[in-house]
């Protein structure tokens, strides 16, 4: 029996908690409109919060202001409820619209920035590739230049050696010709006999 009573009590206590849901008090407030400049005068209606009115006059002694509402009714309301600024009920939709516009602009700006970033990254990759190709070409050209310079030095060395050999050959050839000429000049008088002179001087 005790268990049954405990279960019933637990169910009764848990039911409101399970049924309870989050809600908010509606932002539809109002202030009374009187026929005169204080609360002793007859109430002739009410003005909703955030409603646009025209201020006709204000009574500083009683703290009430005479207003004209959007339905053409004249009456007195407490001056503390009359504000120069629009109420939050009117400003909130404008703020929400401005916020939505700002979010849309921010999304467009981010999309544009992402597109520009992607374009810059693609351009950077392309330029890095071009730089790599240029560096490779420069390396190949440098190797070719080094090879050409080495070959050029070797050819110059061969040409200098050939010049020296040619000069030596010319020198030996000239010396041989000169030696043969000298030898021939020395031997020729001995080979050819001299003619005897006649007594009268004629041969």
Explain this structure to me?
This is TIGR04211 family SH3 domain-containing protein. Keywords: Coiled coil, Membrane, Signal, Transmembrane, Transmembrane helix. This protein is α+β, with helices and mostly antiparallel strands. 60% of the residues lie in helices and 13% in strands. The chain has 2 helices and 5 strands. The longest helix has 104 residues, at 88-191. The relative contact order is 0.05.
Task: Give the helix level as a range of percent.
Answer: 55-70%
Low-confidence stretches: none
**Got a strand count?**
5
- The average pLDDT value, as a whole number, equals 79
Q: What overall form do the CA principal axes indicate?
A: rod-shaped
Oligomer state of the chains in this structure: single chain
Biggest sheet, spatial arrangement of strands: 3-4-5
Rg from alpha-carbon coordinates = 62 Å
Determine the N-to-C terminus distance. Answer: 188 Å
- Structural class call reads alpha+beta
Please provide the ordered H/E string of secondary-structure elements. Answer: HEEEEEH
Number of helices: 2
Relative strand content:
5-15%
The main β sheet shows up as: 3 strands, antiparallel
